[in-house]
Amino acid sequence: MMLGAQTEVGRIRTMVVKHARDAFRNQVEVDCQWEALGYLGRPDFLRATAEYDAFRALLEGLGVEIHLLPAAGTVGLDSLYPRDAALVCDRGIILASMGKEARAGEPDAMKTAFHGLGVPIYGRIEGAGRLEGGDVAWMDSRTLAVGRGYRTNDEGIRQLRDLVADCVDQLVVVPLPHWRGPGDVFHLMSFYSPLDTDLALVFSPLLPVPFRELLLERGVRLVEVPDEEFETMGSNALAVAPRKCILLAGNPETRARLEAAGVEVHEFEGEEISRKGCGGPTCLTRPVAREPP
After folding, report:
1. Three-state DSSP class for residue 245
2. What is the mean pLDDT of each run of 10 residues along the chain (293 residues)?
């Protein structure tokens, strides 16, 4: 498999995903886990698999090569969101260390899967370090932003800084707000989605002022998500190529603002696979190879 993804906006060539069929396994497993994991509602297994089939077809229709992560008894429903368990630099995969205890087994499951695909593991976050992939975003090929919140701690960031020392020129630490507390799903990419080298989708009420100022200083135009569409994950958009993205259906004003900024928007239905588990299209995917933007 090709490797190289020090960008969030270059055309995606290859990614790994976890089909809802393999993450959820069956309705009995869903019923046993969803409340303890903090899901907003009980996912319906059959509807989730149908939604995921359509989501996968959308990705493939946009030219993305898909590799499916296998079912594994050591992980639960949240393995549907592979973005969080690993990140990618040009030297290989860096395995995360999950801030959510129930997801602790996911990095090792990813390691096994990547070995099977022939993808090199470059390093991992260990010991007291905690770092999730949803808190890590490339601002450009040599600048990495990392959210410091409840899922990613100082030790995790320190280890990441050491691992990417020869891959980046700048690592920007973005302090995250308390928002709804440590039990909530909240990452850097909950309110920041790069769409091109000079364009990003943001929810400014939660955007830390220094980070917002840095984006503007770098010449990044900000498309603002309206208040009423933050809860429906309007700010979580997956760039599949520069100014081409996938957005969760049900965010019409966000879509209109994106299109006014010259972005080609593709929607998917995700009541079962996204809204109930609070994981948008970036969370559902782990791009492994992107072209330079």
Report:
1. strand
2. 83 97 98 97 98 98 97 95 96 96 97 93 97 98 97 98 96 95 90 98 97 98 98 97 98 98 98 97 97 93
